[in-house]
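hey all, quick one before standup. I had two proteins in the batch that finished overnight and I want to keep them in one place so we stop losing track of which output belongs to which input. First protein below, input sequence then structure tokens straight from the run.
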Amino acid sequence: NIATMRRQLKTMGLSYDWDRELATCEPGYYRHEQKMFLDFLANGLVYRKESWVNW
């Protein structure tokens, strides 16, 4: 929940420019990520392999 995250960041006292806030779930943001991925794919920079993921 974006409102909860915003409140938590303010509670922690982080110095953050709230005028530059963005949500990665908004199409205006992730369409650029998708375009970049497709550019990488078209240029052979994307591959798939089996590997451990630390997350």
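OK second protein, same deal, sequence then tokens:
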Amino acid sequence: EVGPGDAIHIPIGHYHELTNTGNEVLTLLVVAGLIPPDDSI
């Protein structure tokens, strides 16, 4: 279950879905980008 203010990491290539089970409009912010390998930081 996801609530207000939660951050979720979904790895590339993994199946996911999100269903609004509430009574209000769902607002979703998606931030996408590749994570560099540890040795390149």
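Flagging for whoever picks this up: The mean pLDDT is 86. The chain is about 0% helix and 0% strand.
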